């Protein structure tokens, strides 16, 4: 039997706060990147220390994390940290699934700001060189990345373009969905054709009819579901009157 090991641990990162009474005997030259994963909530522990790497009492302090894209000068997320053990300078940042929903998987910058009991706000540094920004990596780790539907707008005529798909992903239970849109009352039909030939060598004769749907004065959006393993599909529109404007297709 094959055994796979999974490790459960909490990401713990250090942030440095200024302390004029410290001689800086133990320098921290850098801090590891924070990694967060799309599709789940992420919990990151932040431990505040002074420049001698000693814990700082953070009772009655508040702190927050800001995620930004410095290249585009955009701040995407700002979240207050939760105090876990403020006497040991230990806080937790929660980056939710929703926070990362519209962020691409790439490297971002983050900063930490701390407000003391007197209301004075100052940065917490990523190292002993007064770097106010650390690096945060958004990773597509838990689920595959979302892919947009393919749009068939019949720009070249009533026979749509060949849409290549990956049959080895879908397997025998492949579910396909086509959302059909009408810009005026449409009377006519929509034929779905498929091919199992390699997608780099498909000819017109390689397509066979999967289904044909007839419409009469159709104005509301409609959908069609079908199953099967194909290397390519295409849509063929036949118009008596009105307009079938486009089809959104997902394999």
Q: How would you describe the overall organization of this protein?
A:
The chain is mainly beta and 251 residues long. 2% of the residues lie in helices and 50% in strands. The strands form three sheets. Strands 2, 4, 5, 8, 9 and 10 form a six-stranded mixed β-sheet that branches. Strands 11, 12, 13, 14, 15 and 16 form a six-stranded antiparallel β-sheet that branches. A four-stranded mixed β-sheet has the order 1-3-7-6, with no helix packed on it. Strand 6 and strand 7 form a beta hairpin. The longest helix has 4 residues. The two termini are 35 Å apart.
| Count of alpha and pi helical runs | 1
CA-based gyration radius? 28 Å
**On the 0-100 scale, what is the average pLDDT?**
85
Q: Indicate the percent of residues in helices.
A: under 10%
What is the helix/strand order?
Answer: EEEEEEEEEEEEHEEEE
Low-confidence stretches: none
Beta content comes to over 45%
Q: What class do helices, strands and sheet pairing give? A: mainly beta
Work out the number of β strands. 16
Keyword list:
six-stranded antiparallel sheet, single chain, 251 residues, 2% helix, six-stranded mixed sheet, elongated, mainly beta
